[in-house]
Structure prediction request, 436 residues.
Amino acid sequence: MSTEPNILLIVTDQQHVNTISARGNRHVSTPGLDGLVERGTTFQQNYCTYPLCSPARSSIFTGRMPSETGVFENGNNIRATIPNLGQWLGKHTDREVVYSGKWHVRQPHTACIPGFDVIASGINCKGQEGDKSVTQSCEAYIRNYTDEKPFFLAAMYTQPHDIGLWTSYNFRNRAGFPYPELLEDLPPLPDNFETTHEEPARYRERRAGSGPAQKDEADAYWRYYVWGYYRHVEMVEAEIGRLIQAVEDAGRLEDTLIIFTSDHGEGMAEHQFRTKNFLYDEVAKVPLVVSWKGVIPEGREETAELVSGLDLFPTVCDYWGVPVPDRVRGVSLRALLEEGRSLDRDYVAVECHGGSGQAIRSSDYKYIAFNDDPVEMLFNVKEDPGETVNLARSAEHAEVLQRHRTYLGEWLEGLDVAPSVPREYRWRASAPAASR
Prediction:
């Protein structure tokens, strides 16, 4: 076995953290991912850096926050002074660094990604067709690879992102529920479907436009949307299953580190939201499963450690013996994966709305604040994982609130914000939340 593995990075787009049947979801079938869960370590507290495609992806491939990469909205390029993972690996190794599928930093699909050899550029916003080309190209690459040096291969899928197109069509006015035969089989509404706590104004405004046009049958349509979302997950899961089977067929499970994750989550009717770009856990948390047969413990669930999309870059570098660039915000997960060694991390951070919204997740609490709204949110996520009771105005949680304001101030102070980030998205330099 090579001391430095092949690395297969599999990333889906917009996948909710609780969409793997092996983790107890009986409404979705994911045999390929179930096998990966059985063979590897699953993280329950993994957060993206920004619940939107381009910003989150910029962090995966740089180890930096979107406000630093300059990708504060979809369609931006990564700041020229920050190397992406392909460029960095190419600078420090002579190994093949290969990419297939969606990029979206800037173009969604392109054959021109600095630092990577692109073997399939995909089809823009058509995951059902484009994801097949990702699998086919990666399968062919793995089955035909004969070099003794390890490879890095990024398989970047579009689904279940196309649920956005699905809801655009299915939430329009119709004369009655379209498929009454499905009603008995639709998933139930989530426990946190109803939201009564105090929220920032933009969340209340967004909710008003999130639901279906069919107000008299709204609950059925919300459940229909969740059902449809699971079908989109199953589309991409089938492709992932075929890709992992190719690794096994090629006899490479024992020399390949497989990392599966997503760029961000999906509303899935929690808090009566769909799609993304807010800070509740349904979009901020994402699945993360890591497997290397014979090296990483099998069937393990890591329930306590806080991890981030920032950690993937330094983890890849660690497994290939490559130094980490200056100012990378993440840390390698290798010691945690192989030895169970704690990351000794107080919190992780998530940005939103260009960086004007910020979330801090600590071991027990989640804090959300905006630079242009006086309403703060504080949740005890250990006791209230659905984020249904805002404790920000609770006198007995005043110290906890202040501690998280301080965390946020410290985090913001340490960021090297890109010059391109507009002024209205920037927080005041002196720990703004601490003065609320």
The mean pLDDT is 94. Residues 218-249 form the longest helix (32 residues). Residues 79 and 266 are 27 Å apart (CA to CA).
